[in-house]
Amino acid sequence: MVFEELAVRLNDKGYKNWLKAGHCLRILKEGLHVFTNTEMRAFHGDLLGQHAILRRPCQSSSCTAGSTRNKPSSVCAVCSEWRTVILRHHRQPNITVNWDNCRPSSWLHDHWEVAKAYMPRGQFRVAGADQCDASALLNLINHCDRFSSVDPKLVREVIRCRNELMHSCELRVEDEWMRHYQASLKMLLQRFNHVAEVASAAKRIQEMLVADWSVCVSRLDRVDAAHVDGLQTTDQWETGADLISQWEVELLQETLQELLHDTEAQHTEGLVRLKDFLQANRDLGEQFSAEIQALHSLGARGQGHQRTEEDEDQTI
Ligand SMILES: [Zn+2]
């Protein structure tokens, strides 16, 4: 049976919760990206209407991202004004803005280059709302005063849950955590129930969270009897399992990338556990063989790094 190992994993309630919660973030992103894109286009239009200088093109070819982080003097007068205006619309004015997400010379023509100033690091290559994950879009809502009608506490609670989920070393969450997560999502999304895409996403999220995937799993035990029940039973499970398997691979991939690229936190333990988990499951081990190999090399380097840190501790 192709999905036999997936069925075994779904028997673990905590893992099934983790998988469902992670997939809800995908649905959330799908619900939010059209709305945030429309709002940021309007926000950009308002800024151009209010500030004549912003309607002028960038005056320097050196106004590129990366090297300009936290160095306001290294951009031209027009881009400098853009920075001032972007900061003025920040809901937390004292926060460090990730200017290296943006191409300042594109601020005149591309509203999403402005939006990225309100997002976490690592957005430089992202060209539009549809390429952003839920975290990026939630941070935009949390940071840009275009969304000042949304209570920041509600957004931050969902961001906090999202970070706990994606940094969970165990790859599992308890039922109680799920209840809180469901309530937090519901309270936030209720603020957007006038937006069709978000209302639809909210409905799908609630359906996802109450869906009983174990029904699919139990059908595996009846595989021998499938010819009696008719092929439809097996086919239904195959279809369901195929989708769940696809979501699982996407979420594991995303978790891996997050643990690897979040340079602000040390996720060595999470990476080791994820590698062990992938190896322990033959189907996932095959799909992620290249990543497991890369993690092995990283682990070897990590051990070297750890020794250095211990040495430093001893010196202190
Ligand atoms: Zn410029």
How do the helices and strands line up, and which of them pair or pack?
Elements: H1 4-10, H2 13-50, H3 77-88, H4 111-115, H5 134-143, H6 152-166, H7 175-190, H8 196-210, H9 214-221, H10 226-229, H11 231-261, H12 268-280, H13 282-287, H14 289-315
Report on this model:
The termini are far apart. The protein is globular. It has 14 helices and no strands. Helix content is 66%, strand content 0%. The chain has two domains: 4-12 and 212-303, no CATH class; 18-209, no CATH class. With 316 residues, it is mainly alpha-helical. Zinc ion binds next to helix 3.
Quick summary:
The chain is mostly helical and 316 residues long. It has helices at residues 4-10, 13-50, 77-88, 111-115, 134-143, 152-166, 175-190, 196-210, 214-221, 226-229, 231-261, 268-280, 282-287, 289-315. It folds into two domains: 4-12 and 212-303, no CATH class; 18-209, no CATH class.
What distance lies between the first and last C-alpha atoms, to the nearest angstrom?
56 Å
Order of helices and strands: HHHHHHHHHHHHHH
Radius of gyration: 23 Å
The number of strands is 0
Question: Which keywords apply here?
Answer:
single chain, mainly alpha, 14 helices, 0% strand, disordered C terminus, binds zinc ion
